Amino acid sequence: MSTSTGNQDNFHNHRFVHDFRQASPYIHHLNGKTVVLAISSHVLVSNKLPALAADILLLTSLGMRLVIIHGCSQFIQAIAGQNTANSIDENPITDERALELVKQASGIARFNLEAALSMIPTQVMEHSAPNVRLAGGNFLRAKPLGVINGVDMSYSGCVRKVDAAAIEERLAHNQLVLISPIGHSLSGQCYRLQVNEVAQAVAEAIHAEKLIFLGTQPGLLDEHQQTISELNCIEISQLLAKSVMNKRQTELLQTAAHVLEHGVQRVHVVSGLQDGSLLQELFTREGSGTAMAKAPFMRVRPAENKDIGDILQLIAPLEASGILLPRDSEYMENHIQEFFVLEQDCYVYGCVALHVYPEAQAGELACLIVSPSARARGYGELLLAHVIKQARQLQLQTLFALSTHTGDWFVERGFTSATLTQLPLERQQQYTSNKRQSKIFSRQL
Ligand SMILES: CC(C)(COP(=O)(O)OP(=O)(O)OC[C@H]1O[C@@H](n2cnc3c(N)ncnc32)[C@H](O)[C@@H]1OP(=O)(O)O)[C@@H](O)C(=O)NCCC(=O)NCCS
């Protein structure tokens, strides 16, 4: 009994150490960076708001400079009933009554958010609670949309100017800036603004590192309702051209495409209702939602015949120094379906293979290579994570690796030493015949 508890403790400790190490480069990178969070009113009315607010406070304590823009449609619904809220949401014209409701709803949304951000998270001792100051103000200059196709849009407006210097000043004083989707004109009139448009204008004006949309969906969804984990600008324009996304997702893609072309490094679409999604998106390699960037991300994909030349080039120097087994193009052609490549912008920077031994419910990770120019940036681990995911999907129980020089690397990533008899029979015979005396490592999946 005590042994099993001990094993579980070891597992959790190992998991914690692994996750903490994985998060550290992201924590360093985001320290001092400016991030705009656009939070849907669906999240603000839900009982998940306290958990999200605690995570937002955690981000500020890690040195991130945050600007929050909030939606208000759910609060309009609470004040005026669903029908009125729907008609205000869908009507591009904002009349006097609608503007009054938007002002009231924004006020409530803002107070709720302020209250949530003033709570002391339960995991923090009262005396060491972060003292986060919130700053509001007239940061947005608006202008009326005017008359469009003969129709007066009344109090519907658009952003004329963002007072970036004023926002910057608050951020420099470690304040968290809150912005409502309402702007003021030079004549003192209020105009209703769209949250997306405000988020876009603010993120660009203050040169934000990231713009993050927190909504009800786990991310942008493909045609099978699966979360799309990464998109670059080319893929965003291809998706927009296909017109397959719904109205909300299309608007998010358009905003992302615009801000990425205007200096924002990343746009994320994350669930605000799923506990911890924001932290997972920011501090893990797998993320939780959709991350968008201008340039293509480094990614792992199944190898194709066209990659054989690149893979052989990666193998050649390691083969010459005896680190890897020789593989020729005939071998590669016959086994290409076992390989995955690490690719960015059409260049192959690494590869890995997964040989499956179905009877033994085991897999062998082989031919793991990251090109010297891309090493020590976590890509080896990215390839390992991909193989583990594939092996789990194939319901394998064990993953093993044979290595002459890289044993420590595997041990540091959860593998333990194994004996020859633990290998599948077929692999034992190969091992004995090739006489390389590689060390054997395995890990349970
Ligand atoms: C092993 C290899 C794939 C790691 O790729 P990578 O992208 O650099 O891996 P990661 O970024 O995840 O890890 C880098 C860390 O591993 C360490 N590392 C690299 N090679 C190592 C080795 N042979 N033994 C132990 N640790 C090693 C690095 O020093 C670095 O540690 P640090 O950040 O603490 O300084 C890469 O070094 C490689 O291609 N090596 C040659 C081929 C090989 O040996 N393949 C394995 C046999 S199947």
TrEMBL record:
GO terms for molecular function: L-glutamate N-acetyltransferase activity. The keyword GTP-binding does not apply. It catalyses: L-glutamate + acetyl-CoA = N-acetyl-L-glutamate + CoA + H(+). Its main location: cytoplasm. Keywords: Acyltransferase, Amino-acid biosynthesis, Arginine biosynthesis, Cytoplasm, Transferase. GO terms for biological process: L-arginine biosynthetic process. InterPro entries: AceGlu_kinase-like_sf (IPR036393), Acyl_CoA_acyltransferase (IPR016181), Asp/Glu/Uridylate_kinase (IPR001048), GNAT_dom (IPR000182), NH2A_AcTrfase (IPR010167). One of its GO terms (cellular component) is cytoplasm. Pathway: Amino-acid biosynthesis; L-arginine biosynthesis; N(2)-acetyl-L-ornithine from L-glutamate: step 1/4. It is an enzyme of class 2 (transferase). Residues 298-438 form the N-acetyltransferase domain. Its EC number is 2.3.1.1. It is found in: Cytoplasm. Coiled coil: none annotated. SUPFAM superfamilies: Acyl-CoA N-acyltransferases (Nat), Carbamate kinase-like. HAMAP family: N_acetyl_glu_synth. In bacteria which possess the bifunctional enzyme ornithine acetyltransferase/N-acetylglutamate synthase (ArgJ), ArgA fulfills an anaplerotic role. Belongs to the acetyltransferase family. ArgA subfamily. This is Amino-acid acetyltransferase. The gene is argA.
